[in-house]
Specification:
The structure is a homodimer. Helix content of chain A is about 50%, strand content about 15%. Chain A has a six-stranded parallel sheet with strand order 3-2-1-4-5-6, with helices on both faces. In chain A, strands 7-8-9 form a three-stranded mixed sheet. Chain A is elongated. Chain A folds into two domains: about 160 residues, NAD(P)-binding Rossmann-like Domain (Rossmann fold, 3-Layer(aba) Sandwich), CATH 3.40.50.720; about 120 residues, N-(1-d-carboxylethyl)-l-norvaline Dehydrogenase, domain 2. The longest helix of chain A has 29 residues. Chain A is of the alpha/beta class. Chains A and B meet through strand 9, helix 8, helix 9, helix 10 and helix 11 of A and strand 9, helix 8, helix 9, helix 10 and helix 11 of B.
Chain lengths: ~290, ~290
């Protein structure tokens, strides 16, 4: 049987909650997938599912040669270390290999990384969470040269439902940060609105229902508004990651001269909520608690 | 022909962009509608369309007797003056008359007004703008006793598509202010996100498209995001009215003890944009200009 990725050799680094199902979807689509993961368990599970495993990052780079290596890691520093650090991919990286970074990584760093691998870098941060990764219907915001985007596209289309090419390397990360800025601030707005209603003696569940479909409607009002009404702050999307993204947004805003008191206030809110009040493990809709 | 409001006697005060089509829909639904408007033109047009006209507010109150009087005015002070002021409705208001206030009026004031007319008050602020008023598909957030809401319901259902009863008098206004809080802050968030993208060299139209359907999606991203991308700030919804609503939100927040640095920042943004920079006649999506 020939499927979308038959004949493709793909490396996959980082088998977390999202990386693991994504690597499995690539395998199911016919690719020969070789994985590497810092901890043993996820790599062993992948092997049991028929994927290959590399003993080290340089060995993975050697195995993939001029193919595609996907990385799905948590923070910019880990991406740098895995690709360029001691014992990293770059020790054996083929000059024609293409790296696809599915994580949310800083914009200035992404541009540097792309230069350091001769341009063969596609930033492809995703939206949709673990549920989207498992269902292979992620929204993907991609940056890279036209040629590299074309090369990455069949892979992106296996794990994503909506794939948009925004421009040169870094453009995908810029778009993801625009997304996260709206999410961070809309969660805050919905939290205030529902709490305002409660304190004024009006049922917040009824208010949420009344607002659906109108100008105030959003995915955040729908999904996170419901969590706020029910006080269900199990993650979901951890507040720690929301703060990480808000910091990246501020870094980008500063580097391009976007001045925004709202953004300063937004950062102060999330810093206090996560760092000072210790709520990093709550779902980001838990920001509601600030108003209780 | 018998229609929804056959046999109803309804007064309508305030034939602005929204009030005029709403009064006409009530007439078309079979009600005998008597109007009053401060300026001549709209009242004359209404008479030409078959509606009745009262010479004064007390005359309108006398004509309607124990029926329903709708008011659709711009600010709290005008509502107070029209209902309770010298030459206002209350000079001849029947004790069983019901007032429906379609405007966005302050919450503490609404509760007072309701008391002053013996409880016969339904606050029914709307969302959907002039387009929604003309299409009779407004979203209506209603507050009032169960008995008065039942009395108002056939009228609300003629002009609105989605009618929700939130609780006692004032609850509709609370809900409308929750709506406006989300709108004011989401416009700001979308403005920052799109401008962040532009300053980082990414096409804001493409970013808006890439974000549609994801966690950052909202009616504001859809409608107002498009206005920002195209720099089309013709109203639409004037920034003057957005600021008026933000002030009402702050008044309510203070009266119930909701503390929010975000809300303080939001008010400061809109005050500067409208009062200091003189942008009150721009559509509220024009807040984007703050970031240019």
């Amino acid at each position: 049987m020939t499927t979308a990725l038959t004949g493709h050799k793909i490396g996959f680094v980082g088998l977390g909650n999202m990386g693991a199902p994504m690597a499995r979807h690539l395998h199911a689509a016919g690719a020969e997938v070789t994985v590497w993961n810092r901890s043993e368990g996820p790599a062993e599970t992948a092997v049991a599912d028929g994927l290959k495993r590399a003993d080290s990052l340089p060995a993975l780079a050697e195995e993939i040669a001029d193919g595609v290596i996907c990385v799905n890691l948590t923070v910019t520093e880990v991406v740098e270390s895995v690709v360029f650090g001691k014992g990293g991919l770059s020790e054996k990286l083929h000059e024609d290999a293409l790296i696809i970074d599915f994580g949310t990584t800083g914009v200035p760093a992404t541009k540097q990384f792309a230069e350091r691998v001769g341009g063969n870098w596609v930033d492809a941060p995703v939206s949709g969470g673990q549920v989207g990764a498992e269902a292979a219907n992620l929204t993907i915001m991609a940056g890279g040269t036209d040629a590299n985007f074309s090369r990455a596209k069949p892979i992106l289309e296996v794990v994503g439902e909506k794939v948009t090419h925004l421009g040169p390397p870094g453009s995908g990360q810029v778009t993801k940060l625009a997304n996260q800025l709206i999410v961070a601030q809309t969660i805050d707005a919905v939290a205030q609105a529902l709490r305002l209603a409660e304190l004024a003696g009006v049922d917040s569940g009824k208010v949420r229902e009344a607002l659906r479909g109108g100008f105030a409607d959003s995915r955040i009002l729908d999904l996170h508004g419901d969590r706020m009404v029910r006080r269900n702050f199990e993650p979901g999307g951890r507040s720690t990651w929301q703060l990480k993204d808000v910091r990246l947004i501020c870094e980008l805003a500063e580097s391009i001269g976007l001045e925004s008191p709202t953004l300063q206030n937004c950062r102060a809110m999330w810093e206090k909520f996560v760092v000072e009040d210790g709520n990093g493990d709550l779902d980001h809709s838990g920001l509601f608690r600030v108003y209780e």
